[in-house]
Design a protein that fits this description.
The chain has 600 residues and is an alpha+beta fold. The protein is 19% helix and 31% strand. The chain has three domains: 145 residues, no CATH class; 231 residues, no CATH class; 101 residues, Carboxypeptidase-like, regulatory domain (Immunoglobulin-like). It has a six-stranded antiparallel sheet with strand order 10-9-8-7-11-12. Strands 22, 23, 24, 28, 30 and 31 form a six-stranded antiparallel sheet that branches. A five-stranded antiparallel sheet has the order 1-32-29-25-27. Strand 11 and strand 12 form a beta hairpin. The longest helix is centred in the middle third of the chain and has 14 residues.
Length: 600
Amino acid sequence: MRLLPILLLGCAEDIETPDAPPSFEPVAASLGSLSEEAIALAPAWLRDDLALSLAQVSEARRDELAALIVDLDEPWLTDEVAFTVAHISPEVLDDPDFHPELLLDNAQWVYRVDPELSYVDIVDVGEPGTDDDYYSTTTYRFEVDGQVVEKTIDREMYYWYVVHPRIEDERPYYINAWFDCSRSSLECPQSPDNGMFWREFLWEGAAATCPSDGFCPVLRDVLPDVEHAWNGASGSGAEGAIGDVVRYMLSRDVDDARWLTFGAYGERSIQPNRIYGLGRGNCGEWADMTTAISRTALLPNLNVAPSSWDHTWNAFWDDAWIAWEPVNFWVDHAYGITYSAFATRGDASIFLQTADYTEAVFDMQVQVTDSAGAPLDGATVAVFSPFEQDGQQYWWPAGELITDPDGVAVFTLGSEAQYTLRVESSVGNYPPEDNRITWASDGVATGETDTQSFSVDALRAPPAPEATLVDASGPATLSVAGLADEGRLLGTSWRYGETAAVETWGPDVDLYVMDADNYALFAAGEPFEAVAAGEGEVDVDPKAAWVVVVANQRVSATAAYGTLSATVTPGGNASFVDSASAELRYRLLPGQHAALRMTP
């Protein structure tokens, strides 16, 4: 006879079924289903910045921008469109003269031009919808000692300096090249039906809309047969796309007349299409045209400004930034830098390039605090150097930076030279008077650091009330983690008056475990009690409702990115046997919080 297991001999009612483990749900406010869908479609490395950008614009514009990503019929453009949404100032995105579909046009023309160019290929790494971390970049063919060498640029270089639709101080608008703008206006934005974006215009649109008596050369007639990007030669010996871009800008019609001359008067536009229509400009207009033409040709390029004199030129990328100035056919030209050189990204943030032009540099470390001595993050520090013109001395911009979570900005400047500065922040300025600067440094020796401290006569926003810690106990253990892993400095550019989001480390955030009643007090800004503060473990009653909170309340102008995680594990007397956990990716502006609610 086969014996049955003893367990089967008992009555069913004698077997106690374990309870289900507690569950977690996010409490944090959502940007809306459309925005969340757009964020999920973007590559993983881009989602935080995209969410931060969408959080800073109006609700109506947020929906437009999210729909632009969600409704894409060409999924391979998702990363390019999402990147530009994520990295344009919110003031520009909310501008009523800015049309979001321009960002789609911009991306489409990048891919439309690529098959016609022999010296460059767009490389897509991974696929949208299949690979979570997909991205694109470009591979170039260079001529080195008579041999063709292929070079692939980093993805950040591709998105910022090939794809990005903003050059410097202009806004990404549709422009009618032939529209007579008033002298007082640098930009005359049009609707998509009445204007054109510069990628399309410079590639082929100028010829299609050219006045009957005009001379309108376009890149489509110049670049398709070019086999390499550059041969490494300087000056007029430069060959490949770099040399042909210069020759294109210096080309003449059948009557030996240039379509783009040097010299500015009357209307001084900062829009490439209109500069083309006017057919003239000084160094600033030529620099804007050079960058627009280069990016249309898929060549990474930017404008460079020195503080030593009233001038600007360009730089293209070949393992390093290579200076060039097409108006003079200078390629890889050695510029002397006495004070500083700086450039602007498409999000209106400025970065120093001084060390690319001289080895004689030092670091000026500027510490900014409030009147109580607390570090002031997100303050804009604008530096100036002396400039002489017509026998008069002025203080000329030498660059600007945004202070980090410790209230510090570090400038790389020319050694043993004089500098002044101005600090502007949301709580106060130094000097407090408008349009005033203060002495900063005489410039120490090469390789040294000069540390300067400045305090604004105001207090930063006070932090939220501190928690009162109380004891907790129970048959379950709740483990919490979630320190910020990245941050973004949110500062207003002194030069452009727009908000930039600059990379930094994760600021200090607060982590709490509290019950539902105390969470309501915390959310209202009232004093509250918590059973735990910081990362770690706490024993809790799993039959009670607990809230795990992460708060970005110790900084004035730094967004915090991180992942809040919570795990509940049963102890010996717990009524459940399986652990439960949850994660919540957070992107918090200063003063914001995110939370996970644990319920039985």
